[in-house]
Design brief:
Blueprint: H1 12-20, H2 50-56, H3 65-71
Amino acid sequence: MARPALCAPDESGLVLARVAVPPTRIVTLHVTEKGYCHHPARGDLDFDHPDIQGDLARRSPPRSTLGWLVTG
C-alpha cells in the first residue's frame, strides 16, 4: 500500500515512526545537493557540518539526511 509523501521537518514524529516499523523496506528521499552534507571535492561526509554535528549529539529531530535514516 502506497503511503503519502511526508516532509521530515514538518512531520518528524510521523516520519520516524514510519521509517522504524518493520514493514518499511524502502525509503525514498528528495535531497538537494546541500542535503548530502559532504565535501564536494572529496565526496566524503563533512563531520564538521552543523547538521552532522547535531545528529552526532543526538539532537531531536535529526537534521541531516543520514540522521533521519539512522534514527529511523
